[in-house]
Design brief:
5-stranded mixed β-sheet, Type 1 encapsulin shell protein, encapsulin nanocompartment, Encapsulin_nc, 2 domains, ENCAP, Major capsid protein gp5 fold, hypothetical protein PF0899 fold, alpha+beta, 28% strand
Length: 271
């Protein structure tokens, strides 16, 4: 079965290759969570649910001839999507002229999906019971000082690393920042001759990332080993053919992904 309905579409194989290249390239430039999270999958579009264990408390319980698993829940892997149109006249003009088809709308749809994925990773969706790195219950919280002065950012992040180490949670570590906090660290620290971002980067092995979905004033440090968390991928980002409407072609960029947090104590949120 062709889930993406490409075989039934009138688009050529060469054009599909161009669309795929455009979508993957655009998404790769935007995606942040995948740069530090381990991927579990792709499992295939038919895998709709995945178990999520509380790694520190999961256990089998036998009672009255029944064995169940405590500390485990099963969640649906949601679909993320964004649609775009290819105009029939544009395709015909490109075919006649030999010029490449303008796939700006495909790139925009891929970027939109990438931002939705990162928003799901960082904030989850409490309407349907999905936890994010900044919203999961049980995560460590540290009050953030003013990171635009002194060495406050460095000392806060060092304190967070010390906290994780005391709890027996080790690297690799990754630090995700909102753009404003990232820019606040692009300055020379007094008495060091070094940019604060460079000092912080050394603390976390160079794994410092900024993401626009974090808005302003937000930062989170994670121990990103797969025993603590991973990103479940059912269907990796791909493009499907939906329909021909008013002679134009409607397509959908889609993926199925879910952040799986196994140890909420492996996260430090700066508030």
């Amino acid at each position: 079965m062709d889930f993406l309905s490409r075989e039934a579409s009138p688009l050529s194989e060469a054009l599909w290759k161009q669309i795929d290249s455009t979508v993957v390239g655009a998404a790769t430039r935007v995606l942040i969570g995948r740069r530090f999270l381990k991927l579990f999958g792709p499992l295939g579009i038919g895998v709709q649910h995945i178990s999520v264990d509380d790694a520190d408390h999961v256990e089998q319980v036998a009672q009255d001839g029944l064995i169940t698993t405590r500390g485990r829940k099963v969640l649906e892997i949601p679909m993320i999507y964004d649609d775009f149109l290819l105009y029939a006249r544009d395709l015909e003009a490109a075919d006649r002229s030999g010029f490449p088809v303008d796939l700006s709308k495909a790139a925009a749809a891929a970027e939109a999906c990438a931002l939705k994925e990162d928003k799901l990773i960082f904030f989850g969706d409490n309407r349907v019971g999905y936890d994010g790195l900044l919203t999961v219950p049980g995560a460590n919280k540290i009050e953030r000082k003013d990171w635009s002065t002194g060495e406050n950012a460095f000392s806060d992040i060092a304190a967070a690393l010390e906290l994780l180490t005391e709890k027996g949670i080790y690297g690799p570590y990754a630090l995700a920042l909102s753009p404003d906090l990232y820019m606040q660290m692009q300055r020379i620290q007094p008495g060091t001759g070094l940019l604060e971002i460079d000092r912080v980067s050394k603390l976390v092995g160079g794994h410092v990332f900024k993401s626009p979905v974090l808005g302003k004033g937000k930062a989170v440090l994670v121990a990103s080993d797969e025993r603590n968390m991973d990103l479940v991928v059912g269907q990796d980002m791909a493009t499907a053919y939906l329909e021909q409407t008013e002679l134009n072609h409607r397509l959908r960029v889609l993926e199925t992904v879910l952040l799986r947090i196994k140890r909420s104590q492996a996260i430090v949120v700066f508030e």
